[in-house]
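User:
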Amino acid sequence: MDRNISFGRALTVPQFKAECGSNALGIKNNPTTGKFFFVCGTTTGKVSNKISEAGRAIKPVVSLCTSLEDEDPFWMLHEQGEGIADVFTL
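Assistant: Predicted structure:
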């Protein structure tokens, strides 16, 4: 995982789909770059290398991240605990 990323707000996949107003979160492959990304309603985001390389996710979460280089925010689908603390539901 790129360590030049600041992780912020994290949501479970069902929470994120509800927030996007979508029943599905699809993972796509960019044929030009070979990188994976996700689409949920009209929202798109990056997919972590760990999920891309494994071809599956065990405990996926979606986090609002910020690049420390250009400060642009983006959503990232990654494994729970990958880059941030665990997400708890109370």
